[in-house]
Design brief:
Layout (H helix, E strand, L loop, with lengths): L11 E5 L2 E5 L1 H13 L1 H16 L2
Antiparallel strand pairs: 1-2
InterPro entries: DUF6757
Pfam families: DUF6757
Length: 56
């Protein structure tokens, strides 16, 4: 499988609702960095940390 963004061999594959998308290592890192910078993800992460501390 080829990367969704370039013609390199996909190092990672993701599937959702029967659709499979491949990502090379470089584009996979780029997408993970984008997610890490997302405020919604940070808020969710903070909420999960609070919930996990409450259950201890």
């Amino acid at each position: 499988m080829r990367c969704h963004y370039c013609d390199r061999e996909a190092a990672y594959e993701a599937e959702q609702a029967g659709v499979v998308v491949g990502l090379c290592a470089e584009h996979f890192r780029d997408r993970v960095e984008e997610l890490a910078d997302d405020e919604g993800l940070a808020a969710l992460s903070d909420r999960l940390d609070v919930e996990s501390r409450e259950s201890e």
